[in-house]
Amino acid sequence: MTKTLVRIGSGAAWWGDRVEPAALNAERGELDYLCFETMAEATVSAAQVRARRDPSFPGYDTYLDDRMRAVLPACMRQGTRIVTNQGWINPKGAAERIVALLRELGITGVKVAAVGGSLITDHVLELADTILENGQPTRTLQSTLISAEAYMGAEPIVEALRAGAQIVVTGRVADPSLFLAPLMFEFGWDPLDHEKIGAGTGIGHLLECGAQVTGGYFADPGFKDVPDPWNFAFPIADVEPSGAVTLSKVAGTGGAITLQTVKEQMLYEVHDPANYLTPDVVADFTQAHLTQVGPDRVRVTGLTGKPRTPTLKVSMGCTEGFIGEDMFFYAGPGALRRAELARKVLQERFKIVKLDAEETRIDFLGINAVHGAATPDNASEPYEIAVRVAARTRTREEAAKVGREVDGMAVSGIAHTGKRVPHQERTREVIGVWSALVPREQVPAHIDYFQS
């Protein structure tokens, strides 16, 4: 029997998100589904780099244990299903780990599905011709390519839910698809019904960034105030078969759900609100109607969509050299003058050591580090300045020169230089992310099932 209402809660908006709001939603949200989104554009590429350097790295979300331990008892007790993309480059391994955690907690008989197929590194150059960002052939990336992940849609998750999976773990899946899949499953929506799928995708977009709908990344003191911002909850969506939704949060939590918070998230990272491309549909937000129906309750109707494209987007991670970075400080009268002289000293010393850098930056944090040359003149003299030095190089050895020269500022620099203690991570590998399109039929999903 088709449900008349499906209640979905957000569990994470990115890899480093807080765990406590997810636990709160699991315990008090009275949810049908709890969905975790933990992958940014570069997450999978970074995971591939780590896997190359560290054979013990399992390839899934490094906070998988923390998140699952926080929500599994309540979710399994209350019958809440979990959908998560914490599988990263190893969804099968993540599913096996969740099964182990369930057994540790004494929870048996739970079916866990792992959705794979998004990693197409070994044959992406055969499927994709052109790099979207610069129009160059994808073959130009052959020597630097380390990973390629296609954005899969909701249908494999729906298949896993139909097979009885209570927990579904995926690799790269488009963020809204994680939330769309339960709606397609529960309401029986046709994958080609672009109006319903567009509405579900819009709902997923509103939920995927977690607290951004409840006041996170929204609060601006004196301009956009929200209560108790230390206690943001993650949003909850009550979805109707028509695609209408009412957004809310657990009572007694901080933040706010208002027309303004919802509108900001609706337009967040959307270049064209009439044509928001996803694997499942081209969503259209331009007909949306928002109504404040109560305190911290906003109803959204009118979300729709257009037929999906014949292609899927693929993100290709490529090695692009290294960054060397360090920092030192000045405080008190004359701090800016000393920082400016220190910049000159380092520029000359980089010439002496023949630093081979594609780009070098010396920024004054609090003065010009964010807006650079566009920073307006400031007549007031700052009392303290952090000098951030960075260079992008082709080799780690060249990148290491940045830290070595900054170390020299401790006793061979300007008066009153405050220097951090040297540490190991002053160089890091740079991973560039490029995009291309591949035929959707060339990216089949596969699903593995496990039992606790």
Concise structural overview:
Helix content is 29%, strand content 26%. It has 452 residues and is an alpha+beta fold.
Explain how this protein is built:
- The protein has about 450 residues and is an alpha+beta fold.
- Helices cover about 30% and strands about 25% of the residues.
- It has eleven helices and 19 strands.
- It has a ten-stranded mixed sheet with strand order 11-12-8-7-1-2-3-6-4-19, sandwiched between helices. Strands 5, 14, 15, 16, 17 and 18 form a six-stranded antiparallel sheet that branches. Strands 9-10-13 form a three-stranded antiparallel sheet, with helices on one face.
- Strand 7 (about 235-240) and strand 8 (about 245-250) form a beta hairpin.
- Helix 3 crosses helix 4, helix 7 packs across helix 8 and helix 10 packs across helix 11 (about 395-410).
- The radius of gyration is 24 Å and the shape is globular.
- The protein starts with 5 loop residues before the first strand and ends with a strand.
